[in-house]
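Exercise: predict the fold of this chain.
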Amino acid sequence: MRRAHSQQTPPRRGRFVVLMIAAVAVLVAAWVGLYGLVFSPRAPQGESSSTEPTNLPSAPPSPAGSPAPGGDPGQFARLAAAILFDWDTTTDTPTSIRDRLLGWADPTGNETPGLVADLDAYLPDINTWATLRGYHTIQRLDITSTVIPASWAHITASASPGQLLPGTLAYTITGTRHRSGVAFGQSAVSDQPVTFTMFITCAPSFDQCHLMRLGQLGNPLP
């Protein structure tokens, strides 16, 4: 697994980590251990050990480097969430999904190592994927809401100059993850609530929106 390098911390590198540490101190000290931008997010490892099949239609093609949709941040957040969660183990791979999203990573490269670690936390590893493929697992995310967390205004107001690029937003995605497949010759389906926060940067910093980081699955910003 690729890991972010922690030796260098130039003014803009790791700005989310620094900002979140400061925000935690201002908002609630007890919140420190919860959030994935302070500690690398890990998806519940039911993903790794599950023998139940996964869900439905895979995400639309989005090869690395492809242009992001329009300039609507909310639309971008929903599409990024769909690419992350909508997959078919018989046609996709963890690498292909990761590459699609890395095509929309931070153009400066500052946040990309952290995003790689975030994606590794969300996606099943190769061995788990092989098991899920044996069940012809398909996964789909039904998104019920895409909202900017109430705390985001306070966090941005508390940020020091240079900690966040202009046009950086947090979106909390809430929905239901559906998985389906075939186990022992019979169809199997499972549903699970999903909530997480993603961080994106759009205009005026960039012409298109870009995915910066993912917060810990199940621990969204309040």
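Check your answer against the key: Helices lie at 15-27, 46-49, 73-85, 94-102, 112-122, 126-134, 152-158.
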